[in-house]
Amino acid sequence: MRLDKFLKVSRLIKRRTVAKDVSEQGRVWINGREAKASSKVKVGDELQIQYGVKIVTVKVERLADTTRKDEAGELYTLVKEEQRPRDNALDWEQ
């Protein structure tokens, strides 16, 4: 499954176009490597997503083309969530 679609279906990012933009800005990694929106996501992959000063790491548990809101959290497991100092984070409001 494409990275941008997984991020949208899992509701880690609200819209697929936003997921594409975030990937193009270099703020998403798959297994420690910078990922593009078209990168393939597999079960067992570890994703890191930078939201401003917060970096969220999740493990992909299963893939689905569509999902209901209450089931979206079952697609991944939260591994860790960390805050970065403001000067190390990308400021996406510029």
TrEMBL record:
UniProt keyword annotations, A-Z: Protein biosynthesis, RNA-binding, rRNA-binding, tRNA-binding
Residues annotated as domain RNA-binding S4: 1-64
One Pfam family, short name: S4
CDD domains linked: S4
Listed InterPro entries: RqcP, S4_RNA-bd, S4_RNA-bd_sf
Keyword Metal-binding attached: no
Top-rank taxon, per record: Bacteria
Its job: Key component of the ribosome quality control system (RQC), a ribosome-associated complex that mediates the extraction of incompletely synthesized nascent chains from stalled ribosomes and their subsequent degradation. RqcH recruits Ala-charged tRNA, and with RqcP directs the elongation of stalled nascent chains on 50S ribosomal subunits, leading to non-templated C-terminal alanine extensions (Ala tail). The Ala tail promotes nascent chain degradation. RqcP is associated with the translocation-like movement of the peptidyl-tRNA from the A-site into the P-site.
Subunit architecture: Associates with stalled 50S ribosomal subunits. Binds to RqcH, 23S rRNA and the P-site tRNA. Does not require RqcH for association with 50S subunits.
Similarity remark: Belongs to the RqcP family.
Protein's UniProt name: RQC P-site tRNA stabilizing factor
Species of origin: Paenibacillus chungangensis
Record lineage: Bacteria, Bacillati, Bacillota, Bacilli, Bacillales
Gene expressing this chain: rqcP
